[in-house]
Amino acid sequence: xxxxxxxxxxxxxxxxxxxxxxxxxxxxxxxxxxxxxxxxxxxxxxxxxxxxxxxxxxxxxxxxxxxxxxxxxxxxxxxxxxxxxxxxxxxxxxxxxxxxxxxxxxxxxxxxxxxxxxxxxxxxxxxxxxxxxxxxxxxxxxxxxxxxxxxxxxxxxxxxxxxxxxxxxxxxxxxxxxxxxxxxxxxxxxxxxxxxxxxxxxxxxxxxxxxxxxxxxxxxxxxxxxxxxxxxxxxxxxxxxxxxxxxxxxxxxxxxxxxxxxxxxxxxxxxxxxxxxxxxxxxxxxxxxxxxxxxxxxxxxxxxxxxxxxxxxxxxxxxxxxxxxxxxxxxxxxxxxxxxxxxxxxxxxxxxxxxxxxxxxxxxxxxxxxxxxxxxxxxxxxxxxxxxxxxxxxxxxxxxx
Length: 401
Description:
The chain has helices at 3-16, 46-57, 80-89, 108-118, 131-141, 155-163, 172-187, 192-202, 215-234, 239-255, 262-269, 273-285, 299-303, 313-319, 325-337, and strands spanning 35-40, 65-69, 94-98, 123-128, 146-150, 258-259, 289-292, 307-310, 343-345, 351-353, 357-362, 377-381, 391-393. The protein is of the alpha/beta class. The protein has two domains: 3-150, 3-Layer(aba) Sandwich (Rossmann fold); 157-399, no CATH class. A five-stranded parallel β-sheet has the order 2-3-4-1-5, sandwiched between helices. It has a five-stranded mixed β-sheet with strand order 9-10-11-12-13, with helices on one face. A three-stranded antiparallel β-sheet has the order 6-8-7. Helix 3 (80-89) runs parallel beside helix 4 (108-118), helix 5 (131-141) crosses helix 9 and helix 9 (215-234) crosses helix 14. The chain is globular and about 70 Å long. 41% of the residues are buried.
């Protein structure tokens, strides 16, 4: 494969990308940084973001910016530093590298450092779906590279992406103290409950738009790829460990929110207690599950999570045969709050946010009985458009980003 084919492929992809909708993270990124990493789950839109940036910042197509996926056959016989050298010496200023974890060499982090040090004024922006692998390289690159995480679509972003409704994101304080006015304004423009149900089923990953019929099948295959490809690329694991992770994820999906009983899981997976903790941590780092701990008061509380959720509701629907509404509500809430807040288990309600706000999740008939004597407590209620007092619509927590 000739290097010019990489440039031709880059031009073609950039010319075809739509810039109508951009993720909220797009305008928050320091695109002028010398080295920038955008990490996130498979399928959340990292590739599109790179192509959009080139289309917007380099409309003249003068060869200064080059997009390359690191699983290209060219890299089977050539190295990343060779590409950077060619691009730099031929007038290139920006190199956009996609899926760095798929680079066939094990030295991608070292080569990134070499590129940074050898070519002054040269910019490298790269993505990676394998959170594990990039995290392990974070220390090596921390002095040179800025790291950001792209999440799946929030409910707010979904409304714009799918239906063209544009709203500003809300802070947690906005939601807790000004939710009535916020919800009133939003619901005067859109029927949120209908769209919220859509979002819970298929709105987290932008690619649902392309494969509506086979969406859940694609999500199941994506989870398998994460386990069979991304995790082994990140660390040395035996095949039996990968099989145990698959069994663990399947079990969690069918009984989530999963209350952790380490001994029972160890028996189920035919392993010791230490391995159970390792499997849970690996699955969490790989963005397959979310772990909710009791708190940070002592080491023991941080060892064993109290609850385990599948990472998002779309993946939950894809993996489980029957999904309870209560599980979906809590899965959504955990997914959205963990985007920027500390979320722990509350013995009084369902969750404790930032070690301050207690939240109980429920349907429209949910009462304050369980948290009536708890200070700074709230209900996050499903199937209502507008709340009152400390009774907040659940969907509104989808406006945090």
